[in-house]
Amino acid sequence: MIFFLLRLTVAALMLASGGDSRPGDFKVIGPGGGGAMFHPTISPHDANTVLVSCDMTGSYITQDAGKTWRMFNLRGVVQFFVFDPLDQKVIYAQSSGLWRSQDEGETWSLIYPKPSSVKSIKMSSDHSDEDLVAEPNPLGNITAMAIDPSDSNVFYVVAGDRKNGTFALLISRDGGQNWTKEEDLPGLANKLWVNAHSPSDARMLLIAGPHFIEKKTSSGIEKISGPSAKTFTDVSLGFRNDGNPLMYVIGDESAFASDDEGRTWRKAKLGPGGAKTRAIATSLHNPETAYVSYRDLQAGGTKWLGVAKTTDAGRNWQLVWKEDSNPGAEPARNIHDAWITARFGSDWGENPLALAVAEQDANVSYGTDLGRTMRTTDGGASWVAVYSRKSGENGWVSTGLDVTNAYGFHFVPFDHHR
User: Which DSSP symbol is given to 9?
Assistant: First the structure.
């Protein structure tokens, strides 16, 4: 009986309503945003299509560059999104399992673990966290994924068991039906890239986690020396036209860049005062440009927060988003926020928790923070809120990023005409 109910639950979750319509003709009346958002991911096929997740299990997709968003739910909190590099309709998302959409996010199906192997669902917290208990479960928990740029059926994942501390790189050549372990890894990894310039039958992979960066080739695994830091809180990289990677790392709240596979690292200098950084992102095909989120940059007796940008591989940085962290300060002129800054001040959302840069255009970047999703399309010259829009003189209406700002019961009177 439990298994039957579980199968019904899984089947019911293989869909997400489309467009702005909602069952029962309900309409969103909240202002949008208001909660932490993570993992902004831009489609390599269309920079207007973007995904973000939140810490309350909701995930969101826009196909018009943030003008409107549609929420869908994949049971657990989504840890990453991956677009198929060859088919713009296919998207993957990892929550409590690995899910696939074949219609640009309209409906989703669980592909790992296989639905037939799921025995139960374990929920051990009050924050909507859950685990799918499956047998067999040869991978464990998937923490990063990449798809081969020349074959959509070839998946690379890093996965393992956090309790036992065992992690490995695995490959599937049949779209996730069967898996082969390639190499053991020294710890948890949360980033994985395929070098499209490498031979299709001997791919170079780059793998990164909080405590290591490694390169996988046909010769095996090779450790890449990271910057001098105890923990890497964020890693991003892209590949130049010659196939060489350009890597960016946040280590112990400092930003670093390397263009020689870790032999040397340049530490970012954002200004006279010591800034703390926490997110960094570059364009996969335009890696000379990168964006870094910073706070506590002291200059002129003020602590600043925002985003800095480099266009020369980390040698020089420009403060393209620079706001006074004093709650009573005026917002920066190039930051066009919605209701959060107007209501709580420019420091409430803080500097971005996560950043993403479009593969096809390094001028397009999204940043997510404790209450907002912000977007630039002009290389950081201006940043615009995409979680809410102005309605009338004093009101704001959600664009569909309804995270945590509409708690309560909403009365819907009966329509006596029906």
Answer: H
